[in-house]
């Protein structure tokens, strides 16, 4: 379960031409992490029991797709319709989704800024994702903020580097949007990297790791003191 | 722009020297984290000073 330090994430990818999509190939490479299962939906024929078993062992379910007419492509909608049987998902029945998190990773062909009231598309991504949010509510999942990948082909190398880390965090960081959890996530990645590099680099990276941990401790102390003063002022 | 910390400088240098995309991406993210930590430490120190020297509590 979430809270134990390791989130098991199932990424269900619905893309009609997944092999031809540079966005999806990039994300696939990024998702190559422990505790992440990359699961492309490639057929309209679905083994419902096997798919439900995959969902059951995950803490976080991420539906990933390119936005097709403001919704998921047919191949993913078909998967949802077949796999999420009432018996499986209704909290009063099996409650197979209860307590899990639902994330959406959506790729857009046009700039994300167009998705706002008064802008080109006139509707926000949050509005467009309401059916998924409703699904999360009905099945007692926690709905996560949607992860948006816009105009991947036009992104610079540095933007793509940013995207890589943000996407990896979206899949595996505990509480999204918490600076502390982001810090811990990055510390974890650096700690893992340190075990794989040559000795000289290891020493350099270890010093960096120490400084980042010290910063974190300093910040924790300061915030604790501020909280104490806040509490006294109340 | 404030002066970069030692860790940030090291991480930026490592990013510049590292051709592997994933490793480079991690260095860039850590450099950003290190800067954000400094910003937050400064803000928190400022808030702590301000609240400690609040004359209404003298």
TrEMBL record, chain A:
<keyword id="KW-0560">Oxidoreductase</keyword>
<dbReference type="InterPro" id="IPR046980">
    <property type="entry name" value="KefG/KefF"/>
</dbReference>
<dbReference type="InterPro" id="IPR003680">
    <property type="entry name" value="Flavodoxin_fold"/>
</dbReference>
<feature type="domain" description="Flavodoxin-like fold">
    <location>
        <begin position="8"/>
        <end position="162"/>
    </location>
</feature>
<protein>
    <submittedName>
        <fullName>NAD(P)H-dependent oxidoreductase</fullName>
    </submittedName>
</protein>
<dbReference type="InterPro" id="IPR029039">
    <property type="entry name" value="Flavoprotein-like_sf"/>
</dbReference>
<dbReference type="Pfam" id="PF02525">
    <property type="entry name" value="Flavodoxin_2"/>
</dbReference>
From TrEMBL, chain B:
<protein>
    <submittedName>
        <fullName>Uncharacterized protein</fullName>
    </submittedName>
</protein>
């Amino acid at each position: 379960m979430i809270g134990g330090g390791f989130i098991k994430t199932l990424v269900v990818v619905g893309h009609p031409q997944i092999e031809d999509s540079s966005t999806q190939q990039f994300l696939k490479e990024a998702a190559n992490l422990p505790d992440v299962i990359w699961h492309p939906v490639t057929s309209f024929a679905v083994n419902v029991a096997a798919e439900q078993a995959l969902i059951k062992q995950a803490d976080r379910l991420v539906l990933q797709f390119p936005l097709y007419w403001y919704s998921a492509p047919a191949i993913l909608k078909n998967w949802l319709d077949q796999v999420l049987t009432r018996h499986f998902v209704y909290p009063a029945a099996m409650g197979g989704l209860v307590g899990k998190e639902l994330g959406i990773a959506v790729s857009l062909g046009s700039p994300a800024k167009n998705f706002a009231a008064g802008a080109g598309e006139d509707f926000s991504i949050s509005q467009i994702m309401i059916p998924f949010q409703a699904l999360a509510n009905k099945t007692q999942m926690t709905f996560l903020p949607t992860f948006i990948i816009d105009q991947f082909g036009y992104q610079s190398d540095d933007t793509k580097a940013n995207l890589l880390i943000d996407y990896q965090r979206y899949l595996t960081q505990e509480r999204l949007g918490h600076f502390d959890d982001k810090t811990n996530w990055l510390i974890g990645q650096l700690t893992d990297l340190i075990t794989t590099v040559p000795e000289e680099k290891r020493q350099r990276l270890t010093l960096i790791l120490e400084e980042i941990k010290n910063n974190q401790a300093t910040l924790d102390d300061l915030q604790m003191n501020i909280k104490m003063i806040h509490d006294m002022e109340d | 722009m404030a002066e970069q910390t030692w860790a940030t400088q090291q991480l930026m240098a490592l990013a510049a020297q590292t051709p592997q995309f994933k490793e480079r991406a991690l260095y860039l993210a850590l450099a950003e984290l290190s800067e954000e930590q400094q910003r937050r430490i400064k803000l928190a120190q400022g808030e702590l000073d301000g609240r400690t020297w609040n004359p209404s509590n003298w």
